[in-house]
Each structure stands twice: as structure tokens, then as C-alpha cells.
Design a protein that fits this description.
Layout: H1 20-33, E1 37-38, H2 53-66, E2 72-76, H3 82-88, E3 93-98, E4 105-112, E5 116-123, E6 127-136, H4 143-155, H5 160-168
Parallel strand pairs: 1-2, 2-3, 3-4
Antiparallel strand pairs: 4-5, 5-6
Length: 171
């Protein structure tokens, strides 16, 4: 249906998928089925067989290059490899997310206690002043995934109150 969402999780770490052959297969699949793409991070946890962060970024960018032109691509604004990712996503509708000033979906005012995490998300789809969110405290490292979910949900025109409610109920 028109409202269906295809999700193709492609974690990169020390697994058998992280060979040139495995990534080519994921890239082909991305071209055939993905209507949106997201790269959550370029991190040391992903190095595995790639040996350097630059090689991780290059490998992840192959999926951007292989996917269909014109689809939305969400890219991490807080990585030094953003320019590389942007080059490979040049024929996509790019949205960036993170805590840096260059992020289109920007998280700020992060406050954590033992039970909860609160933060503000700013983007033109949510209003210029930003909107407050609260969720159980899984650790600030999960903010990237939450911010990405907020951005994608907003692109599907999910009402802000529904998004805030869903974030608050994360378990």
C-alpha cells in the first residue's frame, strides 16, 4: 500500500555481510526495495573487517550510491564523513540529523536522570521553536535512533502529538 514502510536494517560490524560481496548484495537490495535510506552513524564499533572509519564510511556510502535517485536519505550530521556521504547521496533528498548546528533535524537541551531522558528536537516540519520529547532513559547513545524515527515519522505526516506519545512509551 502507499502507506507501507520498507525497512532494511543493514548493521555494519564484524559479520559476514561486511565483505565487498555482502555489501554489493545489500546495495542491490536497497535499489530494489528501499523508499528511504538512513545511515545512523560511522563508529568504531563498525570497523571490523574494514580496519578504518574512512573505509566504514566508504562502504556505507555504497548503499547510497546504489539506491534509487530521488529517495530521502537521512545522514548523520555529527560525523566528519558527512561530506563523503553527501557526495554519494547527491541524487537523493538529503536530511541530516544530530546535535551539531549543521543538522536539519537537531537535538538539543538533553537532560537525563536515572529514569528518563528529555530533549528538544527542532526542524521546520515540527515548528521553528523546537518541541520537547521525553522517554525512558536507555542512555543518550540511543538519541540518534530516536531522532531518526522522529524525522522519518514526520516525513510520513504523522502528527507531532502521536510521535511524542510513541517516544514517551518506548520500552
Amino acid at each position: 500500500s502507499a502507506s507501507a514502510v520498507s525497512v532494511l536494517p543493514t548493521p555494519l560490524g564484524p559479520t559476514s555481510r561486511n565483505t565487498p560481496t555482502g555489501l554489493r548484495g545489500l546495495s542491490k537490495l536497497a535499489r530494489e526495495v528501499c523508499t528511504r535510506l538512513a545511515i545512523t552513524s560511522i563508529a568504531h564499533a563498525h570497523v571490523g573487517l574494514f580496519r578504518t572509519l574512512r573505509r566504514v564510511a566508504t562502504a556505507k556510502s555504497e548503499i547510497l550510491t546504489a539506491s534509487r535517485p530521488g529517495i530521502p536519505a537521512f545522514l548523520p550530521a555529527d560525523t566528519p564523513f558527512l561530506p563523503l556521504l553527501r557526495r554519494h547521496a547527491s541524487h537523493k533528498m538529503i536530511s541530516t540529523f544530530g546535535g551539531s548546528a549543521q543538522a536539519m533535524w537537531r537535538v538539543s537541551n538533553v537532560r537525563a536522570d536515572l529514569k528518563s531522558l528529555s530533549f528538544t528536537v527542532a526542524h521546520s516540519l515540527l515548528g521553528a521553536r523546537g518541541n520537547q520529547f521525553r522517554c525512558p532513559n536507555f542512555g543518550e547513545h540511543h538519541l540518534t535512533n530516536i531522532l531518526l524515527a522522529i524525522g522519518i515519522s514526520s516525513q510520513f505526516a504523522v502528527p507531532l502529538k502521536k510521535i511524542q506519545s510513541a517516544v514517551a512509551r518506548l520500552c
